[in-house]
Design a protein that fits this description.
By secondary structure, the chain is α+β, with helices and mostly antiparallel strands. It is built from ten helices and 13 strands. The strands form three sheets. The chain has a six-stranded antiparallel β-sheet, with no helix packed on it. Strands 7-12-9-10 form a four-stranded antiparallel β-sheet, with helices on one face.
């Protein structure tokens, strides 16, 4: 028997070593990012090799905000690979100016922060932050970090539309990329300059989702058109949503979600930036 296999840890021990909650590890297991052995009493047993794998999963999922599909491809290789290099390049990809809204500057001033305050907290230079606030291109990863710092969803920072219209015809919504996961497609269903609701049509491929627990201001509502969606709130037991189901939660709840089935999930997601 390999020495590494003779040393095992419980899920609570592993969670403490990684600095996450046990529910996060369970979600990674459900997403197929790790296969865990069980004891005769059906308790999870993690080896030293499992711990090393989970450290990589945490790095890719939480630190680098990668999607499930990308993480699986990275875990399937060994060491440095061409794919890993392409992921790094993708992280540096310049995203649409739809997220280059003046709201970044407005919200900073509203909260009483200086450029130095925010740059120090997020870990970027003042020049880089000033570039964002003046409409310059930055990475999606940085945008997510800033949104988390301000306690808002990325949807809050979308640029207002140039032409207002009440009707958004079928398949004519504005494409959004808020996750960086190729298994997730989003279409904005609102074309008004001033609004507090952000309705989005989502299509999520099997195994994809946002597995990094996060929270923000506002309220959220989901209605399932087809497929299955699994949502976890505050490290509680997961909720399984099926066709016709609806789900409401506060953005302040720590939440993550994924498609656990073998079918495409299609649902309406509505975010309100204003919580009562």
């Amino acid at each position: 028997m390999d020495h590494n296999d003779s040393i095992t840890f419980s899920i609570s021990q592993v969670a403490k070593m990684l600095g996450v909650v046990p529910g996060t590890i369970r979600n990674w297991e459900k997403a197929g990012l790790i296969s865990v052995k069980r004891s005769g009493s059906n308790y999870r047993l993690f080896t030293v090799d499992d711990l090393a794998t989970l450290r990589r999963v945490k790095e890719y999922s939480i630190d680098k905000h990668m999607g499930t599909h990308a993480i699986k491809l990275l875990l399937g290789g060994s060491g440095e690979s061409d794919f890993e290099e392409s992921i790094r390049q993708q992280a540096e990809k310049q995203y649409s100016k739809k997220l280059m809204s003046e709201k970044w500057r407005e919200l900073r001033k509203q909260k009483g922060y200086t450029l130095e305050d925010v740059s120090r907290s997020v870990g970027i230079s003042v020049a880089h932050l000033s570039k964002l606030e003046n409409g310059g291109n930055v990475s999606l990863e940085l945008l997510r970090d800033l949104a988390h710092f301000y306690g808002e969803s990325l949807l809050y920072f979308l640029e207002p539309v140039r032409e207002e219209k009440h009707l958004v015809e079928k398949s004519c919504g504005d494409p959004l990329d808020l996750n960086g996961d190729p298994g997730i497609e989003m279409l904005s269903l609102v074309a008004m300059r001033e609004h507090v609701m952000y309705p989005v049509l989502c299509k999520v491929k099997p195994g994809s989702g946002n597995m990094t627990p996060h929270n923000h201001n506002g309220e959220e509502f989901i209605h399932m058109f087809s497929g299955t969606l699994e949502i976890t709130l505050n490290d509680g037991p997961p909720y399984l949503l099926h066709q016709g189901d609806s789900f409401y939660y506060r953005g302040s709840d720590l939440h993550c979600w994924r498609n656990p089935s073998r079918r495409m999930a299609r649902f309406l997601w509505i975010h309100s930036s204003v919580a009562k």
